[in-house]
Design goal:
- By secondary structure, the chain is an alpha/beta fold.
- About 40% of the residues lie in helices and about 20% in strands.
- The protein is built from four helices and four strands, in the order E-H-E-H-E-H-H-E.
- It has a four-stranded mixed sheet.
- The two termini are about 15 Å apart.
- The model has no long low-confidence stretch (mean pLDDT about 95).
């Protein structure tokens, strides 16, 4: 199964690819700052995630009898062994 959040992979899922939620919270703090300084929320642009994470659980892959390509492992942000 492929998930959107790293917590599922930590719990035994195979792969997750999704937005980095910590980065989104940091960016939201900038919006709060701008609103507290007087900007209208309606005038602020909608922002999409800009940073995504790839996490792979090799234990789960081994249990399923899957071989994960080295190129995919090299591009992963975290590999759980």
């Amino acid at each position: 199964m492929i998930w959107f959040e790293r917590n599922f992979v930590s719990a035994g899922g195979l792969i997750s690819y999704g937005p980095d939620f910590v980065d989104q919270f940091r960016r939201a703090a900038g919006y709060v700052d701008r609103i507290l300084k007087g900007e209208k929320p309606a005038d602020l642009p909608v922002q999409a995630p800009t940073k995504f994470e790839l996490v792979i659980n090799l234990r789960t892959a081994k249990t399923l009898g899957l071989t994960v390509p080295q190129t995919l492992l090299a591009s992963a942000d975290e590999v759980i062994e």
